[in-house]
Design goal:
alpha/beta; six-stranded mixed β-sheet; six-stranded parallel β-sheet; 29% helix; binds NADP nicotinamide-adenine-dinucleotide phosphate
């Protein structure tokens, strides 16, 4: 199955219902023709990086033709499947794979990647069978980035708030039945090294019906040290400190039924099995201390361990890009396509943008800037005649190939029909949309 969006029309003709494409779906751009007059460009991946790159090219080259390919039957990549449903104004992040824990017990039922969990509640078809068991009292999230906070928030948000979002009905039902009362968010380093940002922390602190669990001992001496750190980190740490030391506003929630906590200086060492060995029952954490200071400080084990009982473990250690094809260079260590300003090394005519270009970091604005730069590089090369010569068949060849494999692509106008169906189903239950999650149902609706 493939989605093909042909963008001869100007960017402004794209639906305005998704104004703020977020970050980081990896994308590749292949220039098919050296004829500067009517360049044909193919973008692989319809996430934010793909769209922003296409937008830049179309805006700055009146005769460019861009085809965007997507393996899902719906566009927008992780704008649709990655961003928390209660962040409709943001819509974000990408990359294909997650960093694995690499510890004993990781394969036990009850251990999930945050990426799969996010895909599950956002309607990503491949994650719909995840069936997370939320019958436990305590969940542990490993990693202290924004994805960890997204997942913690979704686990603890009052259901009536989620009911107004585009979270899938199946996820909503599972969360209605959830018994999870406490969520620990565990980091191998300290409060000065957390990877999440202040907006997401503030949302946690203000989450109705929850209370924060922070150990003031983790913050000893921090007041003096934050004077030297850059301003965003300083403000973030001040908020953590204020929350940990119970400044005004923090104590009235002492009786809140649910809690979330940050555990610092703890690195995952093993997932502990239940007595019958059938599922996860906790995490063994290696206690760490820091070597060095600031962002670059390294966590080293002290030799002590601590067991944290829980029934659900979510690993949220960051994302990784996967190689797209053996013909495309890939650096498996960095998880990126080697490139100079988006120009793929040793592959004339091939460009990259998004997380596959720079690694899985940054927010919407980062991917937007980065994708515009890739678009700019491509147009410069086009003008300088640096692209491969000779005619290219472009979409005609792809169409023939798909036809020979019996694949009927979903076009952008097909997507518009699915979009209208989702919005209409959502209206009847007070949501912005009810996402279609079954590709077969999508095809049936399209009469394919
Ligand atoms: P991330 O920001 O890279 O955070 C990963 C976390 O995992 C860090 O705390 C990191 O600790 C920890 N970690 C990594 N490897 C580890 C290991 N081997 N053992 C223990 N801990 C380990 O990744 P993310 O949360 O997946 O987010 C990815 C990007 O998307 C970020 O740029 C994020 O800001 C963005 N994002 C933004 C939003 C939003 O704006 N609302 C939402 C979601 C995601 P160390 O620092 O010690 O390595």
């Amino acid at each position: 199955m493939a989605l093909r969006c042909s963008c001869r029309w100007p960017w402004s003709a794209w639906p305005r219902t998704r104004p703020s494409f977020a970050r980081n779906t990896p994308s590749l751009c292949q220039q098919f023709s050296t004829q500067e007059i009517n360049p044909q460009i193919c973008v692989v991946g319809s996430g934010p990086a793909g769209f922003y790159t296409a937008q830049h090219v179309l805006k700055h080259h009146a005769k460019a033709h861009v085809d965007i390919y997507e393996r899902q039957p719906v566009p927008f990549g992780l704008v649709r499947f990655g961003v928390a449903p209660d962040h409709p104004e943001v819509k974000s992040y990408g990359a294909e794979d997650h960093q694995t824990l690499g510890v004993q017990g990781e394969q036990l039922p009850g251990v999930l990647s945050a990426r799969a969990f996010v895909g599950w509640y956002n309607g990503l078809p491949e994650n719909q069978a995840l069936a997370p068991d939320l019958s436990c009292d305590t969940a542990v999230i490993l990693g202290q980035g924004n994805v960890a906070l997204d997942v913690a928030r979704i686990l603890l948000t009052p259901i009536e708030h989620l009911e107004k979002t585009d979270i899938t009905e199946a996820a909503l039902e599972a969360l209605r039945q959830s018994q999870v009362k406490t969520v620990w968010i565990v980091g191998r380093r300290g409060p000065l090294q957390v990877a999440f940002t202040i907006k997401e922390l503030r949302e946690m602190i203000q989450l109705p019906g929850t209370r924060p669990l922070l150990d003031p001992a983790d913050f000893l001496g921090l007041q003096d040290r934050i004077k030297e750190v850059p301003r965003p980190r300083k403000r973030l740490t001040e908020l953590l400190l204020q929350t940990a030391t119970g400044q005004p506003g923090a104590d009235h929630r002492a009786r809140a039924p649910r809690a979330w906590g940050l555990r610092f200086f703890r690195s995952p060492q093993q997932v502990l099995p239940s007595p019958d060995g059938q599922r996860a029952a906790g995490v063994r954490l290696a206690v760490t201390r820091l070597e060095g200071t600031g962002e670059a400080a390294r966590a080293v084990p002290t030799g002590d361990v601590e067991d944290l009982p829980c029934g659900l473990v979510l690993s949220s250690l960051g994302y990784r890009s996967r190689p797209i094809d053996p013909s495309v260079p890939f650096d498996p260590k960095l998880g990126i396509i080697p490139n100079t300003e988006g120009r793929v090394v040793d592959a004339p005519g091939l460009y990259c943008s998004g997380w596959v270009k720079r690694g899985p970091t940054g927010v919407i604005a980062t991917t937007m800037t980065d994708s515009f730069l890739t678009g700019q590089t491509l147009l410069q090369d086009l003008k300088a005649g640096l692209l491969p010569s000779g005619p290219r068949p472009g979409y005609a060849a792809i169409q023939a190939l798909l036809g020979s494999r019996g694949v009927r692509p979903v076009s952008f106008s097909d997507w518009e029909k699915l979009d209208a169906e989702e919005v209409s189903r959502g209206q009847s239950v007070g949501k912005p949309r009810e996402k279609l999650v079954d590709p077969q149902e999508m095809l049936r609706l399209l009469g394919h």
